[in-house]
């Protein structure tokens, strides 16, 4: 087992990894920008190294700085968290060249899944059902018109290098297709340095259902059920729950097996998420994320497992601690993302926390790097905490969520807390009846 792990991240996910390290008797190293000198992950880790100025490009994304920090501190492995360098195959390669272990899958798998066209081709070949669409990329408008006519409108044009909900454009008909195609390419080029796009059928009222998988890198893999992440704003998740309110045990077993077989076959190592759109009883693959997800705690809650611990074990060449038969679901869990943002338009609201009180009690977990007097810097994303509740069933989880939200105090900045309290009053949320478009429509009417 490793003696020391460096966490190439900040905020709540850095704490999450430090906590797992501590329980495993492994020393932790935090890295930070000058803007984060007094951040919680720095205070909580056993050691810390400043790796650069505030902009992430010069600190949290600086591979040479992170590798130097490993060498200075003698860290044998790096946990990337999510975002930043977590899905950067070049980083994995560079670590390997320096004999440092990356806690995650092999560079090859990150590369395949990082390009959505290749990812879809690979998954299709592995027997995973995909959204109908173009065979590979689409290079010009004429080809786009042809493909769209075949699959039928509306269609969505997506960047192969896409992420974070960017570079996607919907076209309702042939008239709108040309503009959508050109804007998607331009946006993709600007955001990802790669203009390549592909086309998919635009599903009308799907749910976003994602399957958690875990592989040992040697051909054994399991699935840990699904999460429903349909409540989204601008294609970004806002609330996640597990199990999915409308997924039956039979559907779970079926799609779960398809997913675990697929990752077992490629020898995938560590945690991964296979994302689907789900409509009328059918699953359609959209992408795979080769990292721990923000919403992993809902899965941990219902299965009673520590996914970060398993990631570390597998990276160290040890066995994961469960097989498929050991994994049974207990109860229902919901996570909400508390952002430092001002409603109604979700404008970032950085600043000093004058008072912070975290909820507690039975079935409540708070993953947050906030503390009294902490100043949220303006340079990074606005997620300041995740509130996760676990109940014996969905109604209990909902009631617990409302109770816990009522206990949360974050003064000094604006937060999205009230949004969730309002949402919990909605009959559709109470019954679990929502598609990926529900939240945007509700926000338009409400705020
Ligand atoms: P990103 O990598 O940018 O997150 P995804 O491919 O995961 O992009 O898609 C993000 C979200 O965009 C999905 O959860 C869904 O809400 C919407 N979306 C993507 N593809 C389609 C589609 N074919 N039809 C309808 N909505 C889609």
Automatic annotation (TrEMBL):
Gene3D superfamilies: 3.40.50.20, ATP-grasp fold, A domain, ATP-grasp fold, B domain. Keywords: ATP-binding, Biotin, Fatty acid biosynthesis, Fatty acid metabolism, Ligase, Lipid biosynthesis, Lipid metabolism, Magnesium, Metal-binding, Nucleotide-binding. Residues 1-444 form the Biotin carboxylation domain. GO terms for biological process: fatty acid biosynthetic process. Residues 120-316 form the ATP-grasp domain. Pfam families: Biotin_carb_C, Biotin_carb_N, CPSase_L_D2. Its EC number is 6.3.4.14. PROSITE patterns: ATP_GRASP, BC, CPSASE_1, CPSASE_2. InterPro entries: ACC_Biotin_Carboxylase, Acetyl_CoA_COase_biotin_COase, ATP-grasp, ATP_grasp_subdomain_1, BC-like_N, Biotin_carboxylation_dom, Biotin_COase_C, CPAse_ATP-bd. Pathway: Lipid metabolism; malonyl-CoA biosynthesis; malonyl-CoA from acetyl-CoA: step 1/1. It catalyses: N(6)-biotinyl-L-lysyl-[protein] + hydrogencarbonate + ATP = N(6)-carboxybiotinyl-L-lysyl-[protein] + ADP + phosphate + H(+). GO terms for molecular function: ATP binding; biotin carboxylase activity; metal ion binding. NCBIfam families: accC, PRK08591.1. This protein is a component of the acetyl coenzyme A carboxylase complex; first, biotin carboxylase catalyzes the carboxylation of the carrier protein and then the transcarboxylase transfers the carboxyl group to form malonyl-CoA. Acetyl-CoA carboxylase is a heterohexamer of biotin carboxyl carrier protein, biotin carboxylase and the two subunits of carboxyl transferase in a 2:2 complex. PANTHER family: BIOTIN CARBOXYLASE, CHLOROPLASTIC (PTHR48095:SF2), PYRUVATE CARBOXYLASE SUBUNIT A (PTHR48095). This is Biotin carboxylase. It comes from Paracoccus caeni.
